[in-house]
Amino acid sequence: MKLYYHPASTTCRIVMMLAAEEGIALDYQLVDLMKGEHLKPEYKALNPNCLVPMLEDDGFRLTESGAIIRYLADKTGSAAYPKDVKQRARVDEAMEWFYSNFYKDHGYGMVYPQLFPHHKRPSEEAHSGTVAWGKQQAQHWLGILDKDLIGPSRKFLCGDKITLADYVGAEMVTLGEVVRCKYGDYPNVCRWIGNMKALKSWAKVHEVAEGFAASLKDKQFVSI
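RESULT FIELD:
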């Protein structure tokens, strides 16, 4: 199986972490986003979205990180995606919560507009308003994540065992570290992120992302 990816991509790291922790063998094909390789006709012919990640398995192509990790988990029989219908539904629920609620505001509302020119709004007023709104909403979702989804006793999102939802959520939350977010007001979130960062593959998978964050050390950001 081949994964078209870039290690600076939040959604690529979701797949990379699952594969690394579960020992899923993937042939990693770099798509250099910084050089615009995702926009070239050769890649567009494979993935009209011109996005990463994309999985290719014996001619079968699959996009969207959530779909990819479900596919990999099912194919390998991973315990991170339970077979029990209710347990699986809880994992799906948490994943959808991150994609539909948290990532929309935290990532696309607050973080990405500050990092990438193609996310910048057409006027300074619109831009600052978008970032402020994204921060406000991200804080709202973090409160729910801290008190209700994790709470004081859970090691991971859906209980004591790691699931696909943790791989999704941890990448979306730690994305904020690029703009120097601190989550001290959310102790259960911090505890959970600590559990994720203790995974054996975390440091290796995040080398490029941490290097990117370090390159921005002199830039001012709106953060949490």
